[in-house]
Task: structure prediction
Amino acid sequence: MHILAGPSGIEVARKVGLGLGVPVQEVMARTFPDGERLLWVPRVPEGSLALVQSTAAPQEVRLMELFFTLDVLREQGRSATLVIPYFGYGRQDKAFKTGEAASALAVLRILATYPIDRLVLVDPHFHRTPGDFSSQGLSCTSLCAAPLMVERISSTLKKPLIICPDQGSANLVRKASGDAIALSKTRTGDRDISIDDEKLAVEGRDVIVFDDMVSTGGTMIEAVRIMREQGAQRIVAACTHGVFVEGADARILAAGADELVCSDTIPGPYATVSVASLIAQALQE
Result:
């Protein structure tokens, strides 16, 4: 096996390559004065190939890099297992209004035009059930980072209680710990959410508040605030994908979180848990 790292997949790809003991080559890129990108894709030796590229912000740039790389591989007569640790434009897989784009499906349909053997994703927001599935003609695998994250964080806490802002995240965590409490969340807009202030047995307890993704942080901030008001001792706010726009990380800490932890699907100061071992295991299967 050989691993090809896209411009936004280098860190994770290197860790995967180290874990598997296989070589990693990198796609080279530079930016023209008008903002367009030029890519050079090395010719990888024959054999199975995995391409790693995240599509976090700037999403459009990362997606174009991915499409260009896949196009070169097609010209070279190669196919690949595509690993996208963070799947940008993955929140909407259906249209809620006439004429609205289902962005996740649109990206998948474009990817389906390329020679992709398998698409490997980590906690994609549009498909919150771990395991194999198919979409838009692509064979896909959804990897769940919750078990790894909960295990790492729990090792620093005393019998933590795991709280999730909704049932979807709770289902992911239950795969790890066997138990998680799902709060009742209501979303009334892109930024407006409310969580029922249900009394929980958190007083004096260490608590992990886990969600698959944190963007503006409204949901996490509200959940952390409730845990703090109910007397939790130590609160760790955790997520697989730390998007953290508009100062969300600082606002989560200000709301009462003692620590913020996320995976390295998106690089950042809180990305202290690597998903490389999950990806390496999937590539071996």
In short: The chain has a mean pLDDT of 92.
